[in-house]
Write a structure and sequence with these properties.
Shape of chain B: globular
Number of helices of chain A: 11
CATH class of chain B: Alpha Beta
Number of domains of chain A: 2
Strand content of chain A: under 5%
CATH architecture of the largest domain in chain A: Orthogonal Bundle
Number of helices of chain B: 11
Order of helices and strands of chain A: HHHHHHHHHHH
Radius of gyration of chain B: 18 Å
Strand content of chain B: 25-35%
Number of domains of chain B: 1
Distance between the termini of chain B: 16 Å
CATH superfamily of the largest domain in chain A: MetI-like
Radius of gyration of chain A: 26 Å
Order of helices and strands of chain B: HEEEHEEHEHHHHEHEHEEHH
Strand order of the largest sheet of chain B: 6-7-8-3-9-10
CATH architecture of chain B: 3-Layer(aba) Sandwich
Structural class of chain B: alpha/beta
Largest interface: A-B, 23 and 27 residues
Largest sheet of chain B: 6 strands, mixed
CATH superfamily of chain B: P-loop containing nucleotide triphosphate hydrolases
CATH topology of the largest domain in chain A: MetI-like fold
Largest sheet of chain A: none
Number of strands of chain B: 10
Structural class of chain A: mainly alpha
CATH class of the largest domain in chain A: Mainly Alpha
Shape of chain A: flat
Number of strands of chain A: 0
Bound molecules: adenosine-5'-diphosphate, magnesium ion
Helix content of chain A: over 70%
Oligomer: heterodimer
């Protein structure tokens, strides 16, 4: 019996048989994918061009340092920037330790049974809940039920709830990426579970965790809907000085300017968007630097 | 095989392996992973200050048995262990025993070298530190690295990462790390399978050296290695339903020259697995 192969018709190495057709399909595929990419990039470029065109001339130092005003040339973001910083720091303070702790529990401690699976599915679902729903939750629980009012603390707790699922999932993934052999090595010399986690697993997972946290927080910075619902004020003229002061944030200030009839305010809103973009891009840059800094040191 | 045995004889080996008092006495050991009965009714002794080799075809439960001895199987949620492992007159598997304490006295070296992503110094020192030792750390680190035949190669770069060493050096670092708690027993699960032949020989020499002061149990898929280094050999094979069973535990020389069981003979002469 001869070997069950199909012989090629000749020795030629140019495309013959069905190969030209297969190559053609391949190049059509390439075209489609390139088009999809170009479309996405083009949309982004148009958007940025539009915003920069309208907002560029309104960028000024005063935009960062002035309080809001009824006159566009004197209006600024200072109160909103301060509000955003307050909200974000407090959100971090709550969501970072809580999220990482939850991830450590789920990955390092929890038994793998039906209950933890249900818990896990719930957390994944929470990450997909529309942000305005968190706003309603914050309004219901923190503003009204706990009677905190429309203050920094209520806003930050709402944002913490919004960020928690993302932080938990990112931290879990970072922990899961740590090889079992590292844990084995540490257990092998007589370490307890906490010593293994605190000295080896957590430090090795920190770059991944921080990346996730920074991305979750930068998403929260850009959110408008939840804080609009849960009580950011429309017009505040003093910076918040504590947990129980009223506040506004950059996206909400932008939203307010956008809804004014005067074109000057619309242009000012574009300038505000540029500021917000700059803030978000720098946060993402920090995430990238953090990841590279840490991961250069350890290799398995 | 006879070649190997001549090599074995050429080395200075303690004679009369079986006359030594057992340091570890395993009896009626059964291990289950979920519903899978992985190891069935295994009993053997590990004599003090000797090297006991565990050999057998892949999947017959050698690693599983080894991991029982320092309770590493506790870390596998599906694993369930039954039987007795007597060590210093206590049953390691008994409910009141703390696995952390067991692992301090019974150290382990793994198949793939797995130093901590820390400095060479900290790799050795960490195990002692977590167990509360603070003083004399420099001396301890030096002593462990010397005992692992690594000191001369690393004494000038103790603050460099353990991961920057070669594979063989990493494995000796892992042995040094295991020594830092002054264990009675060192378990090694195929410690040379990721190493080149030269590094392998260095580790084997080191094992013979360590056997003066420590009791060693080593899993190996390499029969030449078992014949070269061990005093006693335990042969496992796969029984019904892929359950690992013990076939024969004998002094190494006896097992390789005059196996009691035909399955052992088939395996060591290469007629099987
Ligand atoms: N963590 C585990 N979960 C489930 N089954 C396992 C696990 N570890 C090992 N086994 C099974 O137990 C048997 C013995 O494995 P092992 O002890 O690793 O064998 P060996 O080391 O002799 O190759 C194999 O059938 C293997 O598939
Ligand atoms: Mg194995």
């Amino acid at each position: 019996m001869s070997a069950p192969f199909h012989a090629l018709p000749d020795e030629s190495l140019t495309a013959t048989g069905n190969l030209p057709r297969r190559q053609k399909i391949a190049s059509i595929g390439r075209g489609i994918f390139l088009l999809a990419t170009l479309f996405a990039v083009a949309a982004l470029v148009v958007l940025l061009w539009y915003i920069f065109q309208r907002g560029w001339n309104w960028l000024s130092w005063g935009l960062l340092t002035n309080p809001p005003s009824r006159r566009p040339e004197r209006a600024g973001l200072s109160i909103a920037i301060s509000g955003t910083l307050w909200i974000i720091s407090l959100t971090l303070l709550v969501a970072f330790p809580m999220g990482v702790a939850a991830a450590i529990y789920l990955e390092e401690y929890a038994p793998k049974n039906r209950w933890t699976r249900i818990l896990q599915i719930n957390i994944s679902n929470l990450a997909g809940v529309p942000s305005v729903v968190y706003g309603l939750l914050g309004l219901g629980i923190f503003v009204e039920w706990l009677n905190l009012g429309r203050v920094v603390l209520a806003g930050a707790l709402t944002m913490a709830l919004l960020s928690l699922p993302v932080i938990i999932i990112a931290s879990q993934e970072a922990l899961r990426a740590i090889p079992w052999s590292l844990r084995e090595a540490a257990y092998g010399v007589g370490a307890t579970r906490w010593q293994v986690t605190a000295s080896h697993v957590l430090p090795a997972a920190i770059p991944g965790i921080l990346t996730g946290v920074i991305l979750a927080v930068s998403r929260a910075i850009g959110e408008t809907a939840p804080l609009l619902v849960a009580g950011a004020a429309g017009f505040v003229t003093t910076k918040p000085g504590g947990f129980f002061d009223s506040y506004t944030t950059i996206p909400i200030q932008i939203y307010n300017w956008m809804s004014r009839p005067q074109t000057e305010f619309r242009d000012l809103a574009s300038a505000g968007i540029i500021v917000l973009l700059a803030l978000l891009i720098s946060m993402n840059l920090i995430a990238i630097i953090v990841r590279q800094r840490f991961s250069a040191k350890t290799r398995w | 095989m006879t070649d190997l045995l001549e090599q074995t004889d050429a080395q200075t080996m303690p004679d009369a392996a079986s006359e030594q008092a057992p340091l570890i006495d395993i009896s009626g050991l059964n291990v289950y992973y979920g519903n899978f009965h992985a190891v069935g009714d295994v009993s053997f002794d590990i004599p003090k200050n000797q090297i006991t080799a565990l050999i057998g075809p892949s999947g017959c439960g050698k690693s599983t048995v080894l991991r029982c001895i320092n309770r590493m199987n506790d870390l596998i949620p599906t694993a369930r262990v039954e039987g007795e492992i007597i060590f210093h007159e206590q049953n390691i598997l008994a409910p009141g025993i703390d696995p952390v304490m067991v692992r301090r006295r019974i150290g382990m070296v793994f198949q793939k070298p797995n130093p901590f992503p820390k400095s060479i110094y900290d790799n050795v020192a960490w195990g002692a530190k977590v167990n509360g030792i603070r003083k004399g750390m420099d001396d301890l680190v030096e002593w462990c690295l010397r005992s692992a035949a690594l000191w001369d190669e690393v004494k000038d770069k103790l603050d460099q990462s353990g991961l920057a060493l070669s594979g063989g050096q990493q494995q000796r670092l892992c042995i040094a790390r295991a020594l830092a708690n002054n264990p009675d027993v060192i378990l090694m699960d195929e410690p040379c399978s990721a190493l080149d032949p030269i590094s392998t020989l260095r580790i084997e020499d080191l094992m013979r050296e360590l056997a003066r002061n420590y009791t060693i149990a080593i899993v190996t898929h390499n029969m030449q290695q078992a014949a070269r280094v061990s005093d006693q050999t335990v042969f496992f094979s796969l029984g019904e339903n892929r359950m690992g069973t013990l076939v024969e535990a004998s002094p190494t020389r006896e097992l390789f020259t005059n196996p009691r069981d035909s399955r052992t003979e088939d395996y060591i002469t290469g007629r099987f697995g």
